[in-house]
Each structure stands twice: as C-alpha cells, then as structure tokens.
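Hi all, long-time lurker, first post. I run a small reading group and we've been trying to get comfortable going from sequence to structure in the token notation. Rather than ask abstract questions, I figured I'd post a concrete chain and ask someone more experienced to write out its structure so we can walk through it together at our next meeting. Sequence below, copied exactly:
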Amino acid sequence: MPLPPQPADDPVMRRLVALIHAPLPNSAHRARIYLLEQLHLLEEEALATGAKPEILRAIRSTQAVIRCSDPVMGA
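-- Answer (accepted) --
Happy to help. Here is the structure in token form:
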C-alpha cells in the first residue's frame, strides 16, 4: 500500500513547491524565463546550504522540463 505524500520538510524544497504553484506572467515565454531565473537562484542557494542530492535533482529536473517545453529554447 503506497504511503500518503509527506509535506516538504526542507526549506529549499518548500520554496521549489511554492515557486511551481505561484502565479506566473501571462506570456508563456516570459513565464519560462522567470521560472528559470528563480530556479537558478534556488539552485545556488541549495548548493550553498548543502542541500540533499535529491533536492538538487528536483530543481535540475524542473529546469530541464521548462527548457524542453519552450520551442525557442530547444524543444
């Protein structure tokens, strides 16, 4: 039987979840640029604070999904 989802107990992971749920600019391209900028800052913070490897993977996976979804960025 699968376990119910657990709340994020890491501050960086909480910020990642909040970023994904935050309102975005109306332009899809501007929204992607905004998300990538915020994710870059979050990644730097995670590296500086010694975040767990799975948190860094989550940030980098999110960046990859956003990059792949934009035809201008290489989808």
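A couple of things your group might point at:
The mean pLDDT is 86.
The chain has three helices and no strands.
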